[in-house]
Specification:
alpha+beta, binds adenosine-5'-triphosphate, binds magnesium ion
């Protein structure tokens, strides 16, 4: 649970100090006064990166050489302090005075779920945005998933490189063989975990959405180009092996979780194509509340960050949301 935040040279703020209430916190200000900047800083505490930019320099107040943020929060009632110093070429994260070099070293992490207008990308965006979304949830539920994902991406990159470089088919095939056992192992595991995740997520979303949106029926369907009806690893191996010649022709790896996607339906209509603006927002909100619920089953304190969430939601949906979050920090 977030206790306080201090910003120095962060975005539009030279200095800002805020203390937070354990339940509802409301930030009210005119346009361009820095409300989203504050949300972004809190998100930074949870994910150690911004949701708006990959470039550190943008987070530093114009005309300055660094930005410093410090936060206090409790994790299972234990007080933690995280400080983040951002310079154009990198950032330094300290937790309770100890340097943290990677996400993996960030224990007693401050858990947050963000809902903001650009989140519509988890429905409307490119498949990569959707993969990133489910990966970010599964990673937080089971940290070893990140290792498998990184391992898969590394083998995939090497394999694709080989497919482009090698001219001689026999030696190419020998090289591919050296990658494919690993690729299939990690790939099948990713698919298995994504499939299980989507099944659980589906159940939670459906029940939230029904109450949030006057009985509307929510459905999410996992799409992968490997057959997932029977034994996934077996099917993966067979299809993958049968496709090797096509990969050689196309000079890239066709089958695998790097091309996964999901489709969201309301009743039988694909939301991406047919939903109204408000409906799209509601569906996104449903998914965010389901994400929150899943995280809360692992860690009691999850803070919900809402940026401009009420626009486009009707009165009954606003009321549902306020009711839903009444016992947590928002
Ligand atoms: P709205 O109500 O329109 O959503 P907001 O209060 O959420 O507004 P923010 O997006 O938080 O506004 O802040 C935007 C302001 O911050 C802009 O005026 C922008 O110029 C300023 N800003 C962003 N990055 C920096 C930076 N690195 N240095 C100085 N100012 C910055
Ligand atoms: Mg804003």
């Amino acid at each position: 649970m977030l206790k306080s935040l201090k910003l120095v040279n962060y975005r539009s703020f030279s200095k800002l100090y805020l203390k937070f209430h354990p339940r509802k916190n409301i930030i009210l200000a005119n346009n361009a006064k820095g409300k989203s900047n504050v949300i972004e800083a809190i998100y930074l505490l949870s994910f150690l990166k911004s949701f708006r930019t990959e470039r550190n320099a943008e987070l530093i107040k114009f005309g300055n050489s660094f930005s410093y943020t410090s936060f206090e929060y409790t994790y299972n009632d234990i007080l933690n302090r995280v400080e983040i110093t951002i310079e154009p070429k990198g950032k330094l994260v300290k937790q309770n005075e100890k340097l943290i070099k990677s996400n993996k070293e960030y224990n007693q992490r401050f858990e947050a779920v963000l809902f903001e207008p650009f989140d519509l990308n988890i429905i409307k965006g490119a498949p990569a945005a959707r993969r990133k979304y489910i990966d970010s949830i599964i990673t937080r539920l089971s940290p070893s998933y990140r290792d498998e994902l990184l391992a898969y991406n590394k083998v995939l990159m090497n394999r694709n490189k080989a497919l482009k470089i090698y001219k001689d088919k026999a030696s190419l095939k020998a090289v591919l063989k050296s990658y494919d056992t690993e690729l299939i192992k990690y790939g099948a595991s990713l698919i298995e975990k994504r499939k299980t995740f989507i099944e659980n997520f589906q159940n939670i979303c459906a029940s939230i959405h029904k109450d949030l949106a006057d009985g509307e029926e929510f459905r999410i369907e996992y799409k992968t180009n490997i057959d997932i009806m029977g034994d996934i690893k077996e099917a993966y191996k067979n299809e993958f092996t049968a496709n090797i010649d096509k990969d050689i022709e196309r000079k890239t790896t066709y089958l695998g979780p790097h091309r996964d996607d999901y489709i969201v339906y309301i009743a039988d209509d694909e939301v991406k194509k047919f939903a109204s603006q408000g409906q799209l927002r509601t569906v996104t909100l449903t998914m965010k509340l389901a994400e929150l619920k899943m995280l809360k089953s692992f860690q009691k304190d999850v803070t919900l960050l809402l940026d401009d969430v009420f626009s486009e939601l009707d009165k009954s949906r606003k009321k549902y949301l306020l009711d839903y979050v009444k016992d947590m920090q928002v």
